[in-house]
């Protein structure tokens, strides 16, 4: 993959007059239009006017921030004023947003340039970016493989070096898993630290917006620009500055082995990464994590229940695709619109969610999942009394072949290492390790709520980054 210029390198080039934002954005738009992985659903031609304004600011020595003139790709479930937002679904095709998501508003205020909307799994339901109404996204390292999901398009454009950063959303690992599959950095913030206002909702108690980047430093810069309480999102808040540093890591001694999901060569790469972590002076101790398959089971009860509630608004009457033809009843009209507008995976989860939350089964499934969540939370709280953070592989394997996983349950197990962070609101980051047989593989760190900055610090040490990161060379890798 080509290496994109880092934010610091672009800012320096702009400030020295070696490159203008307008010139660079023209190059970026051209690259986005010609890229071959189906990573974007639309480019924003009007961004050229915004780039000219950024160029004028640099010439006048009045840049707005370190993000002024920096190109950013935004996942197609994050709304942009005046732009179509589809969440990669036929249900929302033609829907124009009348406002900016809070994260987009903050980026624009900082002078960042939103250049395109990225492809994704429909309504963020998927782990491979194959469920999109625009067709599947391909992995830039091997076009016969998936880029991960649901933020596969954002991961792909960053991995190709077209833009230094992109925004994704993470509900069960949808930033970290594609980051691992594509060999980039993916950060899931603490739940509530970034506003969800303007994010097309999937599971509101799990959804988080976060960055994908080619360096930890750039991911941290984007996070710092979009975080903070928002009056339009009652779940958002400002977290106090974290105290202390991460020194002691918990390593799952049994859970990831018992799951029998980790490939032999991937396990070797994980062990190698642990040795590197120790060489940096971090302590590692074995911990007994709860069985990760329990967390996946909890998630795939609660997620469909919340999805069925959030997507109930798309009925073809108030919102979404309207079915044509004559119908005898309103029920027929709504049923036809939803059948035509939603893809198979979305319909599958809506069926499950409606069933699990129905009067006769709510106690047996939904409420039971909530109860078990409380039990697991107590276990994680106990673990975090002994360690500062936990390290796992991001995924059990490298990117799989397009169309290879047909069993929905097997696809859901792609999130086996990432989903706990969403269930409990932990911050988590995936960083690339050395590849496995030429394919990217990722390492995940997660910590208690509010420890986002500590995770960035650890990840930068792990990647050997200095401030600012040099974008002239590939990211440092441990040997």
How does this model look, in words?
The chain is α/β, with parallel strands linked by helices. The protein has helices at residues 7-16, 21-34, 47-59, 102-109, 152-159, 176-182, 216-226, 255-258, 264-279, 292-310, 330-341, 344-356, 366-383, 408-412, 419-423, 452-463, and strands at 40-43, 71-75, 113-118, 165-170, 185-188, 208-213, 248-252, 283-287, 389-393, 428-432, 442-446. The chain has a domain at 7-245 and 397-463: Amidase signature (AS) enzymes (Alpha-Beta Complex), CATH 3.90.1300. Strands 1-3-2-4-6-5-10-11-9-7-8 form an 11-stranded mixed β-sheet, with helices on both faces. It is globular and about 65 Å long.
Topology:
Elements: H1 7-16, H2 21-34, E1 40-43, H3 47-59, E2 71-75, H4 102-109, E3 113-118, H5 152-159, E4 165-170, H6 176-182, E5 185-188, E6 208-213, H7 216-226, E7 248-252, H8 255-258, H9 264-279, E8 283-287, H10 292-310, H11 330-341, H12 344-356, H13 366-383, E9 389-393, H14 408-412, H15 419-423, E10 428-432, E11 442-446, H16 452-463
Parallel strand pairs: 2-3, 2-4, 7-8, 7-9
Antiparallel strand pairs: 1-3, 4-6, 5-6, 5-10, 9-11, 10-11
């Amino acid at each position: 993959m080509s290496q994109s210029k880092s934010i610091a390198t672009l800012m320096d080039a702009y400030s020295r007059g070696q490159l203008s934002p307008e010139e660079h954005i023209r190059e970026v738009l051209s690259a986005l239009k010609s890229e071959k992985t189906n990573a974007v659903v639309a480019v924003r031609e009007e961004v050229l006017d915004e780039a000219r304004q950024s160029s004028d600011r640099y010439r006048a020595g009045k840049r707005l921030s370190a993000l002024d003139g920096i190109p950013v790709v935004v996942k197609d479930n994050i709304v942009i004023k005046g732009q179509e937002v589809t969440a990669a679904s036929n249900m929302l095709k033609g829907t124009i947003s009348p406002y900016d998501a809070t994260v987009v508003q903050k980026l624009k205020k900082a002078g960042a340039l939103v250049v395109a909307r990225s492809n994704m799994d429909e309504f963020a339901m998927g782990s491979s970016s194959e469920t999109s109404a625009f067709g599947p996204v391909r992995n830039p390292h091997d076009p016969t493989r998936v880029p991960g999901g649901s933020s596969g398009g954002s991961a792909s454009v960053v991995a190709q070096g077209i833009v230094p950063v992109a925004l994704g959303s993470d509900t069960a690992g949808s930033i970290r898993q594609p980051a691992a599959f594509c060999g980039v950095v993916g950060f899931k913030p603490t739940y509530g630290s970034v506003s969800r206002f303007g994010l097309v909702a999937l599971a509101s108690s799990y959804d988080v917006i976060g960055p994908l980047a080619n360096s930890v430093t750039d991911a941290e810069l984007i996070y710092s620009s979009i975080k903070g309480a928002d009056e339009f999102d009652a779940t958002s808040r400002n977290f106090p500055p974290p105290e202390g540093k991460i020194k002691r890591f918990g390593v799952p001694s049994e859970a990831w082995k018992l799951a029998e999901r980790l490939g032999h060569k991937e396990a070797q790469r994980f062990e190698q990464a642990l040795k590197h972590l120790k060489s940096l002076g971090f302590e590692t101790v074995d911990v007994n994590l709860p069985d990760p398959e329990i967390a996946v089971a909890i998630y795939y009860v609660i997620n469909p229940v919340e999805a069925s509630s959030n997507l109930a608004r798309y009925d073809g009457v108030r919102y979404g695709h309207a079915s044509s033809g004559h119908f005898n009843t309103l029920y027929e009209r709504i049923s036809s619109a939803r059948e035509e507008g939603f893809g198979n995976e979305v319909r599958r989860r809506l069926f499950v969610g409606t069933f699990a939350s129905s009067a006769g089964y709510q106690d047996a499934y939904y409420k039971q999942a909530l109860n078990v969540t409380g039990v697991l939370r107590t276990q994680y709280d106990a673990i975090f009394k002994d360690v500062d953070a936990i390290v796992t592989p991001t995924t059990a394997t490298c990117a799989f072949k397009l169309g290879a996983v047909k069993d929905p349950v097997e696809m859901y197990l792609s999130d086996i290492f990432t989903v706990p962070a969403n269930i409990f609101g932990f911050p988590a980051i995936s960083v690339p390790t050395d590849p496995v047989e030429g394919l990217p593989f990722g390492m995940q760190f997660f910590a208690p709520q509010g420890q986002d900055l500590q995770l960035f610090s650890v990840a930068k040490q792990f990647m050997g980054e200095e401030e600012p990161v040099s974008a002239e060379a590939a990211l440092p890798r441990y040997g």
